[in-house]
């Protein structure tokens, strides 16, 4: 038989395949789950696109909408995608600024996965005539990924987008 076995992290998952999934309307980092990376000898990117991310302005409580891009180079663990979906959904009634949301997401994923490298980019829809697109990244200290993070930050968004390519 080929494929991932229960000994390779599947036995610890509680959300995938669970028909009784509960959706939290409040920030819930505890729903995040990880499984073993079966390819730790190789560098590769995992990218998630969440075009329906929502949160609330902390002051006005008005909704904010974004596409959230999460890319990372795993080390020993990878995030289970259903748990990530539920986690991102938990921001629905969470009041924070755009910049805070992307940093919170990145911090929670670093805590869960201890990735070699990660970046989170929130492309929020305009409100009040302005869009805010915060981007943050992290490279594991003392490794080539720390240098990669510094380089990518220094060269991030050198070609700003036009208003018509959102």
TrEMBL record:
<dbReference type="InterPro" id="IPR043133">
    <property type="entry name" value="GTP-CH-I_C/QueF"/>
</dbReference>
<feature type="binding site">
    <location>
        <begin position="98"/>
        <end position="99"/>
    </location>
    <ligand>
        <name>substrate</name>
    </ligand>
</feature>
<comment type="function">
    <text>Catalyzes the NADPH-dependent reduction of 7-cyano-7-deazaguanine (preQ0) to 7-aminomethyl-7-deazaguanine (preQ1).</text>
</comment>
<protein>
    <recommendedName>
        <fullName>NADPH-dependent 7-cyano-7-deazaguanine reductase</fullName>
        <ecNumber>1.7.1.13</ecNumber>
    </recommendedName>
</protein>
<feature type="binding site">
    <location>
        <begin position="79"/>
        <end position="81"/>
    </location>
    <ligand>
        <name>substrate</name>
    </ligand>
</feature>
<keyword id="KW-0963">Cytoplasm</keyword>
<dbReference type="InterPro" id="IPR050084">
    <property type="entry name" value="NADPH_dep_7-cyano-7-deazaG_red"/>
</dbReference>
<keyword id="KW-0521">NADP</keyword>
<comment type="pathway">
    <text>tRNA modification; tRNA-queuosine biosynthesis.</text>
</comment>
<feature type="active site" description="Thioimide intermediate">
    <location>
        <position position="57"/>
    </location>
</feature>
<keyword id="KW-0560">Oxidoreductase</keyword>
<dbReference type="InterPro" id="IPR016856">
    <property type="entry name" value="QueF_type1"/>
</dbReference>
<keyword id="KW-0671">Queuosine biosynthesis</keyword>
<dbReference type="Pfam" id="PF14489">
    <property type="entry name" value="QueF"/>
</dbReference>
<dbReference type="InterPro" id="IPR029500">
    <property type="entry name" value="QueF"/>
</dbReference>
<comment type="similarity">
    <text>Belongs to the GTP cyclohydrolase I family. QueF type 1 subfamily.</text>
</comment>
<dbReference type="GO" id="GO:0033739">
    <property type="term" value="F:preQ1 synthase activity"/>
</dbReference>
<feature type="active site" description="Proton donor">
    <location>
        <position position="64"/>
    </location>
</feature>
<dbReference type="GO" id="GO:0008616">
    <property type="term" value="P:tRNA queuosine(34) biosynthetic process"/>
</dbReference>
<dbReference type="GO" id="GO:0005737">
    <property type="term" value="C:cytoplasm"/>
</dbReference>
């Amino acid at each position: 038989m080929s494929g991932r076995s229960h000994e390779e992290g599947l036995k610890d998952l509680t959300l995938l395949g669970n028909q009784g999934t509960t959706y939290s309307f409040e920030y819930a980092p505890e729903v995040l789950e990880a499984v073993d990376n079966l390819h730790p000898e190789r560098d590769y990117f995992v990218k998630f696109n969440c075009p329906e991310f929502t949160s609330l302005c902390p002051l006005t409580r008005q909704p904010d909408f974004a596409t959230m891009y999460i890319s990372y180079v795993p080390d020993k663990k990878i995030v289970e995608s259903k748990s990530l979906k539920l986690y991102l959904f938990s921001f629905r009634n969470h009041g924070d600024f755009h910049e805070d949301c992307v940093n919170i997401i990145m911090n929670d994923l670093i805590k869960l996965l201890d990735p070699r490298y990660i970046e989170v980019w929130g492309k929020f829809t305009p409100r009040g005539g302005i869009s805010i697109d915060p981007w943050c990244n992290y490279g594991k200290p003392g490794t080539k990924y720390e240098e990669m993070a510094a380089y990518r930050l220094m060269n991030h968004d050198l070609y700003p987008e036009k208003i018509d390519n959102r």
